[in-house]
Design a protein that fits this description.
Elements (H helix, E strand, L loop, with lengths): L1 E3 L4 E6 L4 H6 L4 E2 L7 H14 L7 E9 L2 E9 L5 E2 H7 L4 H16 L2 E2 L8 E3 L5 E3 L6 E2 L5 H19 L7 H17 L1
Antiparallel strand pairs: 1-2, 2-5, 3-5, 4-5, 6-8, 7-10, 8-9
Helix pairs in contact: 4-6
């Protein structure tokens, strides 16, 4: 949901469960302490990433409402103007080799900082003006030591792109584009 104060626009996100648990309990989580609430954990992570100069939404506020042994939560971030998901971008305009290399290099920039994104997909990779990459939705994200998770993370993005392509064969994405993404990713890791 977009909210405004007359000067700025913000994104207000309510934490909702997905999958099978979400069919039973939509917005409740087990209480384990204030810092472990999903909203505060994501707020602290975004604040750290933003202070490192990584392209993420600026966190503004987080809250939780405790109801005995459970809680619900919300997060407020500054809205990034004129962004669209990678899925939308490849549906609306052709891409170049350089485009995919830049996307790969930017994902590697996050991985080089140890940033694990729990749901790296074609919708959470967002592109702004001049195709500047932003990552959104760091729920369950964290800073980790380098490891196999990085390969699993980019494999998740690849699966997401292939799935989006299956839904719309006209999308501007193919095996050569993924190879260009990997070139950008691995060249950036060698330069880091």
């Amino acid at each position: 949901m977009i909210v405004a104060d007359g000067r700025h626009e913000y994104v207000l996100r309510r934490y909702l469960r997905g999958g099978l648990p979400g069919r039973i309990v939509k917005e409740s989580y087990i209480w384990t302490g204030e810092r472990q609430t999903r909203s505060f954990a994501e707020w602290y992570l975004l604040a750290k990433l933003y202070s490192l100069g990584l392209p993420v939404p600026r966190p503004v506020a987080a809250r939780y409402l405790r109801h005995g042994p459970v809680y619900s939560a919300d997060l407020l971030t500054l809205r990034i103007p004129a962004i669209q998901s990678l899925a939308e971008r490849i549906a609306t305009a052709p891409t170049t080799s350089n485009f995919w290399r830049k996307v790969g290099a930017q994902v590697q920039r996050f991985h080089g900082a140890g940033v694990y994104h729990a749901d790296l997909n074609a919708y959470n990779v967002q592109l702004g003006q001049s195709d500047k990459l932003f990552l959104l939705d760091f729920d369950r994200g964290r800073i980790r030591s380098p490891g196999h998770w990085q390969q699993q993370n980019i494999a998740r993005l690849h699966r997401s792109l292939r799935k989006v392509k299956q839904l719309d064969r006209e999308l501007h994405f193919d095996a050569a584009n993924w190879s260009e993404f990997l070139d950008g990713y691995f060249n950036a890791s060698r330069l880091a």
